[in-house]
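Hi team,

Below is the intake form for MarR family transcriptional regulator from Paenibacillus oryzae. Please confirm the fields before the structure is written into the shared record.

FORM ID: S-0412
PROTEIN: MarR family transcriptional regulator
ORGANISM: Paenibacillus oryzae
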Amino acid sequence: MNTFNTDERLIRWLSLSHIQSRINDELERSLQEKHGLSLKEFYALHFISQTAEKKLRLQQLQEMVDLSQSAVSRLVARMEARNCGSLQRHVCEADRRGIYTCITELGEEKLQKALQTFNEVLQAALLEQGLKKELQSNLQEL
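The structure came back. Fields below:
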């Protein structure tokens, strides 16, 4: 049985949050520097590429990337325009109100290159002195 009190749980939770924030910042910096992608843009490419038809409704993407409707719309617009377009929008034929975004060939190529950077940064962060052990300890004690 776990004998931690609420203060100890809070301290462990804050420690995990700090670790996650540090890794997010490093991922954001590396993806931006090497591929011109924000972390949210990377996630958008990833989520869309994982679907069978390589497309998602903007509303679905909004939920997956955790952005507002207007923020997702701006993100997709940037990614349509930037670098000859990593994404393309399409109106849903069955429901003219629905808008889909699909990943382009350029977007797939960009994602594959960015995925390599993402994995390298994440692995380096997890191998950082004591970080893996600290994570395991914090998770076990929560």
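SUMMARY LINE: The longest helix spans residues 6-35.

Thanks, M.
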